[in-house]
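User: Sorry, folds how?
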Amino acid sequence: MNPARPGSPGDPGKRLALTAIAVAGALALAGCGGSGSSGASGASGSSGSSGAELSVQASYMPQPVSADMAAGFLTITNKGGTKDELTSVTSDSAGEITMHETNGGAMEEVNSFEVPAHGQLVFKSGGNHLMFEKLKHRPEQGDTITLKLKFAESGPLTVEMPVKSATYNPSTGH
């Protein structure tokens, strides 16, 4: 369990429990599938022909079931010959965006994710995902959330993430 951040209200167990409940609800409603491309934009993060060449596909946020927390999913593709690392995600729509991995049904916050050379980093229901915390307003289906993805080596990517229905199950996405 992560310790409470300085100045955070309540005990750490309560925060973790509330986060787990919100994620479980969002993930259960979001559906799951393979990867594909829909609803995302992003510029190349290339640093040369042998560097990382990053792009984003299939981004979406299921309409949140909570007024202050939501999940987000997307796929980052690296067509370059060098790995990179996603180090943070920010948005004017949320006070904080954390990255989580799920192993054996347990969710754990992580500080970064590797984007392998000639590979993908997939955020999907039941697996790696983004948690939007301290939402400034509750996103509704049809809204678009702007994200900035920051990497260890490549320049940042701006992503337009559409808000889908809470039961959205992409046929070619995740």
Summary: The radius of gyration is 16 Å. The longest strand covers residues 69-78.
